[in-house]
Amino acid sequence: MGRATGAVTEEQLQDLDRYRESDAFSPLEKRVLDLATRLSQTPVEVPDELRSELRRHLTEAQIVEIAAAAVWENHRARLNRAFGIEAAGFSEGAYCPMPHRLEDSPP
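Request: output the structure for the sequence above.
Response:
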């Protein structure tokens, strides 16, 4: 996200479930992850403060692209879960952190 290549680091994958406390993510990356977390909850609630903070660093098009990717992946995950579709073994050794519960959501 914040790297020139756009690549996600191994450390970020390891720290994804605790991204708010991790030094592996920039402040902007943490806010983007806050947005993705908020968009994946039911009901969806994105505070004005979070939207304002993102607008200080990103264009509307960038925010929409991030949001679209987050909700699409959430849609796919929910559909897979509803039909009992499990991993097919294409990512051996990869990380798959558990999603945050609503009580753990960012302010």
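DSSP finds four helices and no strands in the chain.
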